[in-house]
Amino acid sequence: MDTNDIKSIMELFAKLPLNEMKLESGDHTLRLAKEMAPSQAAVHVPVSAPVSMSLASAETEAPAIDPNLKYVTSPIVGTFYAAPNPSSGPFVKEGDLVKKGQVLCIIEAMKLMNEIQAEISGVVQEILVENAQPVEYGQNLFSVK
After folding, report:
1. Torsion of CA 62, 39, 133, 126, to 10 degrees
2. Do 26 and 79 lie in a common domain?
3. 79 and 132 Cβ atoms separated by less than 8 Å
4. Who contacts 28 (Cβ-Cβ below 8 Å, separation ≥6)?
5. pLDDT tens-digit series, residues 19-56
6. Residue 81 lies in a domain
7. Strand partners, 28
């Protein structure tokens, strides 16, 4: 890649509706990213899920918040695994009683397996992610009552 190629790619990227692009050619990697305005950064609407609910109806249909319900969140970005290996059963299932410190799942990040433990004792009300699903930092994984 020479500077003319890079300039051409940058001009094309500026015209495209992409926010980020990575191009690899041999030993060279070119990563381009656009700064988003604050109003753009806050809005993420999936194309496949159109939103037709008004704000007023969303407020009236909100479920009641249970003060006894606590969430176990992901401390890292990675891949959620419900079991120690593909041939064994899950660490926990919905309805299971868990104790503080008990392993609930594994999150793989950069080839490291990180055990996620229960921070409180209680009953697993809901498992909020699917096995082998990518998870984000702070994402709710389990609800425990």
Report:
1. -20
2. no
3. yes
4. 1
5. 777 777 777 777 777 766 554 444 444 444 444 444 44
6. yes
7. 25
